[in-house]
Write a structure and sequence with these properties.
Elements lengths: L1 H22 L2 H38 L2 H16 L8 H14 L3 H17 L8 H11 L7 H9 L9 H22 L6
Helix pairs in contact: 1-2, 2-7, 3-4, 4-5, 5-6, 6-8
């Protein structure tokens, strides 16, 4: 799959160069490449600062016991969504951390916790295929509720939005709808064999 994407990107680059040469717009292409590269570096620096700040806050929250409190608050929900997992298992803790990071709109900070959760879930799965808990976690992670869409707000502020978080109602509505539909479908399909 990644090889196919590499061919697609290479093809797009070659086609754009050919079009620029044929239409006599090589200077505009060069200017676009340089401004795009400069903009990408500026965006990465802005996003890195935001991610460092929020990842640090998440670490402080974990060390301060907030994740344990969130785990207790989420325990009734976790018990229903992940009935195969023990309440105090490392998998449940990692899932709660992942949900918390996604809740705060920190998709990049949630990724390591999501990987840790999937590894913990895989330890209790003797097969090479995903079990119900693993599938449910993927659904919850992909269709997570975002209370504060930090990444999107930072992007909007970077590009001059006067109210970068005025998208909150739309984000909340779509997040809740996606999560409800995802969990419902995952629960309906639990126990069905792939064969």
């Amino acid at each position: 799959m990644s090889a196919l994407l590499n061919y697609i990107w290479a093809g797009l680059i070659i086609i754009s160069i050919i079009c620029a040469v044929v239409t006599g717009r090589v200077p505009q292409l060069s200017a676009a490449v340089m401004s795009g590269a400069s903009g990408a570096v500026e965006l990465i620096i802005a996003m890195t600062g935001m991610m460092c700040a929020w990842t640090g806050l998440m670490k402080i929250a974990d060390e301060g016991g907030i994740t344990r409190i969130l785990s207790k608050l989420l325990r009734p929900v976790m018990r229903r969504l992940f009935p195969d997992c023990e309440e105090e298992s490392p998998a449940i803790k990692a899932i709660c951390m992942n949900i918390t990071a996604n809740f705060l709109g920190l998709g990049n900070a949630a990724t390591p916790m999501g990987i840790a959760a999937m590894k913990e879930l895989a330890k209790r799965n003797p097969t090479q295929t995903a079990d119900n808990s693993m599938a449910m976690f993927v659904v919850i992670n992909a269709a997570s509720i975002q209370l504060i869409p930090t990444f999107m707000g930072t992007l909007r502020a970077k590009y001059g939005s006067p109210a970068p978080f005025d998208i909150l109602p739309a984000v909340w509505l779509t997040s809740v709808c996606a999560l409800v539909v995802g969990i419902t479908v995952a629960k309906l399909l639990e126990g069905r064999s792939s064969g």
